[in-house]
Amino acid sequence: MKTRSYYVIWVKDQAARAFLWADAAEKPSRWAFLAEFLGYEEAGVGIWVRLVGIREIKDDADDVEWKITQPECLLFWNFIITARALGESPNTNPLGFRRPGEPAANT
């Protein structure tokens, strides 16, 4: 990962809920953390990021945008499913996919 670049970081449901102190849900959600990469944690347990946004993606409901008051945080490796590089500026719609039957954004 490149310092001062932005990433969408996909986080496990249980980990995201623990991170946000959110209640457990009957059906798990998908979680996308939009973040600026700040660096690797010295002991090798995760990465330091500055969160720009957190989106909870539910199969049967509207997405939920979460806000946090302290954006700089440590994400443990075992929280992370995968990450996608966005470059040197955050994209307002970084996910790049839509639900089945949903029209494309540019139509």
Your description of this structure?
By secondary structure, this protein is mainly beta. 7% of the residues lie in helices and 42% in strands. The protein contains one helix and six strands, in the order βαβββββ. The protein has one helix at 13-20, and strands at 6-11, 30-40, 46-57, 64-66, 72-76, 80-87. Strands 1, 2, 3, 4, 5 and 6 form a six-stranded antiparallel β-sheet that branches.
What's a quick, concise take on this entry?
By secondary structure, this protein is mostly beta strands. It has one helix spanning 13-20; strands spanning 6-11, 30-40, 46-57, 64-66, 72-76, 80-87.
The tally of strands reads 6
Q: What share of residues are in beta strands?
A: 35-45%
Q: How big is the Rg?
A: 14 Å
Q: Mind summarizing the main beta sheet?
A: 6 strands, antiparallel
The helix/strand order is EHEEEEE
Structural category: mainly beta
User: How helix-rich are the residues, as a percent range?
Assistant: under 10%
Query: Segments where pLDDT lies below 50 for 5+ residues?
Result: none
Provide a count of the helices.
Answer: 1
The mean pLDDT is 85
Overall body shape? globular
Span between termini = 34 Å
List keywords for this structure.
mainly beta, 6-stranded antiparallel β-sheet, 6 strands
List the helices and strands and how they pair.
Blueprint: E1 6-11, H1 13-20, E2 30-40, E3 46-57, E4 64-66, E5 72-76, E6 80-87
Antiparallel strand pairs: 1-2, 1-6, 2-3, 3-4, 3-5
